Amino acid sequence: MRKMLLAAAAALFLISFNACKKSSSTSNARTVQNFSGSYNLTALTWTALGVTINVYDSLDACEKDNVIQLNADLTSNFIDGGIVCNPPEDDHGTWSLSANGDSLYFGSTGSYIKSWDGKTLVVTGIEENGPPQVIGTTTLVKK
Questions:
Q1: Which domains are delineated in the chain?
Q2: List of residues 6+ apart from 119 with CB closer than 8 A
């Protein structure tokens, strides 16, 4: 009887402990609502002929702290934040999500969504530097 009471108390403790956990408000569903927000660039690579180059490390400090804002009305803002570049790189445009949620478009330029966990967005696309074909991979983290 004592073992059963102890087991019941342990189960009750585990249930109440799990019930107190904060639920995550981040959704990884690929919707305009979930993608809307402000992002910072955290990684940028180019791959050509099997060789990957870390382009992010060669960016000026004024480019690394820029903010990319995706608005729910499908407008976008590229904000020159922190250290301001000369001339400033503020830009406005539009963005959209493909019908099946596998691609993100800035204006008419599309990028394949490699991964999205509700906070970190990784997109790939063909850079217009070729030949050879250069695949750019960009990692953005939602603020």
A1: 29-142 (2.40.128.20)
A2: 26, 141, 142
